[in-house]
User: Fold this.
Amino acid sequence: MATWLKDNLTGEFEQLKFRGGPGDEHMFPQERKKWEQKLAEGGWTCVGWPKKYGGRGCSIEQQVIFNEEYARAGAPGHVGHIGEGLTGPTLIAFGTEAQKQKYLPGIVAGKELWCQGYSEPSAGSDLANVKTKARFDETKGKWIINGQKVWTSLAHESDFIFVIARTDPDSVAHKGLGFFLMKMDQPGIEVRGIEQLTGTSEFNEVFFDDAECEADDIVGAPGEGWKVAMGLLGFERGVSTLGQQMQFQNELDQIMAIAKENGAAKDPVIRQRIAGAHIGLKIMRYNSMRMLSGGADGSLQKEALIYKLYWATWHRDLGELAMDVLGAEAEMLESAPYNLTRLQSMYLFVRSDTIYGGTNEIQKNIIAERGLGMPKEPKILMK
Assistant:
């Protein structure tokens, strides 16, 4: 893998090194799509998938090596990571054979991109509060979807979306939900970009107005959406976390190089904070290795419950360290109107790390209730 990356991350792809990923998704989207297909040509997409579905059938150990080598080489963030890391494993675990044959080849080839339709204006960290509805139209023989999703990463670049919607209009919480596979390019779906603090629009709002979903494109039975959705979130805590940590290491390495160059490393407090960041990243890695013993259906060990809270807080602190190392330079832009450096963009974006994917407060509740078996937080009943 390392040799292949060295030979291929050149020429037109040279500019992609260390680009892409959270906070930098707006960079070189078309070029990164071409890179995704280049990976596919070399057989380097979906390496952990079974061979019968186009993967390499790599072991957990081999997948760890792959993700770490990929990040170490500075290869760009995957534009297809939702499909490869979430949609695919979910369909392999819960989907029908027809669904696998329909959707998995496009993901393996790097030609069909997916986005995630989970969060809503009133259902962010509280996913079970979704209001988007799905009804089956007997005349059309299709599911009709109405509602809104928000914070949908790369929806503007995606070909498909998986959507959690309520199949039983009278149901509440996690009951009565369905998990749907939908084509983005259709009259009933509208995507609106959300401008972020960084001046870019990585996230989107997605509106469904009588959007259609084929009858066979619900994963599991109506009412089983919560089980499928939770299985998918388990895959989110999989081997890709090791690649994420290598990207964190690349950021830390850049911060250390700047500290040595501009003299910030002579400050004992800065040195202590850099050492603390290094130690924190090592702890993150060791806990991730414990996490990887989860089941093939996305089930997780309790060690996985702390991961989101830990990395989000660590990464937010790294952004603050970067600004302090840069000093006065951190408050200046190279050119108008909003030309942020990589570290400036990272600092602004990581403010969201402790919010998306479940806020820190929600993560603490999950740890307390699911991990430690403590009583659930009291709820206020509104009359």
